[in-house]
Amino acid sequence: MDFFKPLSSDSDNQNNKEQTPNVEEEHVTCLIIGSGPAGYTAAIYAARANLSPVLYEGLEPGGQLTTTTDVENFPGYPEGVTGPVLMEDLKKQAERFGSEIRSGYATEVDFSGSTHIVTIDGSKKIHAKSVIIATGATAKYLGIESEIKYKGMGVSACATCDGFFYKNQDVAVVGGGDTAAEEATYLAGIARKVYLIIRKDYMRASKPMQERVDRTENIEVLYEHVTQEIVGDVNGVSGAHLLKQGKDEVFIEISGFFLGIGHKPNTDIFAKYLDLDEVGYINTQAGTTLTNVPGVFACGDVQDSHYRQAITAAGSGCMAALDTERYLGSLAVS
Length: 334
Description:
The chain is of the alpha/beta class. It contains 7 helices and 19 strands.
């Protein structure tokens, strides 16, 4: 198919001008940027396909799951598993098959030539025949100190990941858009009561989502409320101090506080070369992990604004490795 055809040769990025003296360089077949379920799974499959993958873990080795306590919905762990242990298991499995896992993060890319150049830590240049991007997305936070303090102890950015732990308890969701409305209605089926905290006097969510919220009896919408502080103890979150209309203090007793204000995909360094959507997620060809640049693939949350689950990220990591193997095979016979 046309999307597997390599770019026209340019003497291996001759336009990368004269190489900067004293810059360390390396040539690899398959470079994976980012870890987490997507990156590690891509490494497992790529290694088993003898692609000798090199993976750089990024600024947060293991991804968002390393900040999660119990994970009960990842297949293969009937008793559940903590996020850090799950990521360490995936990493070990990738290394078992020959993946080279390294510390470091990508600071610059050049996808203009037939060989892709990725700069690591601002200094080392990797020349790669193929690149798998698994840099994920970062949840947006309010910027208050207490939400960081209780992150993973009642503060969460994923209702479908952590909602089960709050069965028949009172929780809060902050945000006024579709994401917050979806999180709130999902949690309403699990929790006893859901407070939806909205700083404005209206909801930005789409009309259908607003109607779903209005129809859900155990959701209480708190318009014109701003979260001042989340409180708790060693056991986790126990409540939140809110400010109503900028003057009246309100306290709600909750055991879970969910961020529903969106995610930011980690794609800034790719914007010059890759096709991104209006939010910044990498656009991939339907049913594949192919980007608009031949030999560059994207998997996990960096291209998934909808599901954002560990298992779907892992599945797309598998797809990326298989797409990469097929692409490299097409180069060998061209």
